[in-house]
Write a structure and sequence with these properties.
alpha/beta
Length: 264
């Protein structure tokens, strides 16, 4: 079989049909690791405070006060972080990039004229990028697990507002990683809205039934207003020296004498 003169075969990485195929899925997964890695390095981002919460929560809805509180807390966090001595900008507010609590967080950071991150994911309903994410720091993901990796890898703290399955998934994954000592860098976890969270998750019952240890309750704290939440974050984070993001190469294991990076 011969090739017609003047006809050059297409390079595999320039073939959109191949890149969209099942065979190229590993390449697409790898791209959702390497492209954000490159951009975060370029933008000097290595410490974030992640806001989780429902995309369905609206400012004029039954739980609308949480939208206002998320916006105010993100504004306070951003103003504080901008005041810290740094080579860049520490503790950037990061959200899932969509509406509801995510929009409130990015909006509050924007109110303080700070950069803010959105890790958006394409869904059939309710998930479109909000208008308040810094353009250079807006990411689009197809794979949930790659998006969750980027939430965890750069996070110094989580502020978890009322949410549903997605919020619970993200919260419990971080708690599990900390409980099992799979993270080298401690992640501060604040559950915002104690009335909501104590109704939704009975942590005391988990202890009573022996499913978690009493000391596991120290993996998180509650906050009910922006000022208290900010003070908790400042107490936990301000003394920490600025450092690069943890490496992906190694993880903490019982046999590791000198732990490496985190493995979300």
């Amino acid at each position: 079989m011969t090739t017609r003169a003047g006809h050059n075969p297409r390079l595999a990485y320039e073939n959109p049909d191949f890149l969209a195929s099942d065979d190229a899925r590993p390449l697409r997964i790898l791209a959702e690791y390497l492209e954000p890695l490159r951009r975060f390095r370029r933008e000097h981002v290595h410490e974030t405070i992640v806001f989780f919460g429902s995309a369905r929560l609206q400012p004029d809805g039954p739980l609308g006060r949480y939208y206002a509180d998320a916006r105010e807390l993100a504004r306070l966090v951003t103003a504080w972080s901008k005041s810290l001595p740094s080579r860049g900008h520490r503790y950037l507010v990061c959200s899932g990039g969509g509406g509801g609590i995510m929009e409130a967080a990015n909006r509050g950071a924007s109110d303080a004229h700070g950069r803010t991150i959105g890790l958006n994911i394409g869904l059939p309903h309710e998930q479109r990028p909000n208008a308040y994410v810094t353009r250079e720091l807006l990411f689009e993901f197809h794979y949930f697990f790659m998006r969750k990796l980027w939430f965890a890898h750069l996070a110094c703290a989580l502020v978890v507002f009322p949410g549903g399955f997605g919020t619970l998934d993200e919260l419990t994954e971080i708690l599990t990683l900390q409980q099992t000592q799979k993270l080298d860098r401690r992640i501060v976890v604040l559950l915002y809205g104690s009335e909501y969270w104590k109704e939704i998750v009975n942590f005391d019952a988990l202890v009573r039934h022996g499913m978690i240890s009493p000391e596991d309750l120290r993996l998180f704290h509650y906050a009910d207003d922006p000022a208290t939440a900010l003070a908790s974050l400042q107490t936990a984070l301000v003394v920490a020296p600025e450092e690069p993001a943890p490496a992906f190469a190694s993880s903490r294991t019982p046999r590791s004498a000198s732990p490496g990076g985190s493995t979300p």
